[in-house]
Amino acid sequence: MIDDLVRLLGTAAHDDSLRAVALTGSGEDFCAGADWVATNAENKRPRTGDLVRRIPHTAHRLVELIATIQLPVVCTVRGWAVGLGCNLALAADFTVADTAATFWEPFLQRGFSPDSGATWLLPRLAGVARAKRMLLLGEKVTGADAADWGLIHAAVPADELTDAADELVTRLAAGPTVAIGLAKQALAYGQSATLAQSMNQELSNLELSCRTADFKEGLAAFRERRDPDYKGF
């Protein structure tokens, strides 16, 4: 599944016809994470260095693609989002969850250290204290609490989840896609840059976005006092 998602997102990144990405689970749960029991069976122990060779191109690549693809990514979570599944949801631009969903980072409870961006994503979204509660203590967080903590965009009752996510995807897909992608890129860059560096990045992005057809449409719509009809280029 991870390889398929990496391939699909890589393809989406170069498809100019796409305006947004929707990510959701196909069953009762969003994602239960990697199957460490199967991959570490007594007759199937990984060789030394196998994780270092493999994970950067699979799980870590997937999280990175979600966070950096220049399309808005909306994630819908129902049921459990565990380990890698939790971090996929946290890496998305917008995550909408069932209020009763469960976000869980069980790495240390299984005897190994966190991966897939947990130690980077959690403190930036919810603060160090709450990150420690989830990682060091293994506390489970409901969808409602995840929204209160700032881990996700919103939590809604289960019967409203699909409509809430679809509405968000539709809204983002109708926006100026190039400018949205550049803004997403600048937000990520700004987390490790100075104010001056961030403003220089904004200036470069402004130069690019002002050359798009959507920029011209935005100005025309403002002059004509109507809603813009962006085309994504």
UniProtKB/TrEMBL annotation:
<dbReference type="GO" id="GO:0016853">
    <property type="term" value="F:isomerase activity"/>
</dbReference>
<dbReference type="InterPro" id="IPR029045">
    <property type="entry name" value="ClpP/crotonase-like_dom_sf"/>
</dbReference>
<protein>
    <submittedName>
        <fullName>2-(1,2-epoxy-1,2-dihydrophenyl)acetyl-CoA isomerase</fullName>
    </submittedName>
</protein>
<keyword id="KW-0413">Isomerase</keyword>
<comment type="similarity">
    <text>Belongs to the enoyl-CoA hydratase/isomerase family.</text>
</comment>
<dbReference type="InterPro" id="IPR001753">
    <property type="entry name" value="Enoyl-CoA_hydra/iso"/>
</dbReference>
<dbReference type="Pfam" id="PF00378">
    <property type="entry name" value="ECH_1"/>
</dbReference>
<dbReference type="InterPro" id="IPR014748">
    <property type="entry name" value="Enoyl-CoA_hydra_C"/>
</dbReference>
